[in-house]
Amino acid sequence: MPPLLHFALLDPRLNKLRHAAAIALFLAIVIAGSIPGARADIGEYASGVVLHSTAYAVLALLWFTGSRGSGTNRAVATVLAIAVMGAIDESVQSFFPYRGADMRDWMVDVSSALVVSAILWGLLPKAALQRS
Fold first, then answer.
1. Are the beta carbons of 22 and 64 closer than 8 angstroms?
2. Residue of 79, 102, 77 whose CA lies nearest to 91
3. Which of 4, 15, 88, 116 has the maximal Cβ count within 10 Å?
4. What whole-number distance in Å separates Cα of residue 114 and Cα of residue 78?
5. Are 21 and 62 in contact (CB under 8 A)?
6. CA-to-CA distance for 123 and 117, rounded, in angstroms?
């Protein structure tokens, strides 16, 4: 793995920063999704499945690489965290008359976390995961 990529994804000194970035991105997603007409405008460029899968895959990447422990522990923590984030996002949407909560969106969120976690668990060096 190239040194810069290793530093960005696995350096334990950046774990808190990665979690903070994930939380900030999640809040930005919830806020942007609450702006009237914003979802419709973005929908002209990408479908809901594409938006949810991309956004929550990035969140999963940040959460997985910001976590500690074995690949299995990181994967479980990531999927659970993304499941909670997705549920919060859908719950917030249910409060707006121009939005709606959709279980399928939440399932896309969780599926993205499962795929990203599985890929990272399989590809990242086991020794690097143990040190972080």
1. no
2. 102
3. 116
4. 8
5. yes
6. 10
Q: Are 56 and 33 in contact (CB under 8 A)?
A: no
Query: For position 48, what pLDDT does the model report?
Result: 80
| Token reading at 83 | 């499941």
Alpha helices, DSSP H only, in 34-131? 38-43, 48-66, 71-93, 103-123, 126-131
Contact in structure between 48 and 99 (CB atoms under 8 Å): no
Calpha distance 106→79 (Å, rounded): 12
Give the whole-angstrom CA distance, residue 78 versus residue 80.
5
* Ranges of each domain in the chain: 3-131
Query: Two tokens at 68?
Result: 């500690």
Q: Does residue 15 have a pLDDT over 60? A: yes
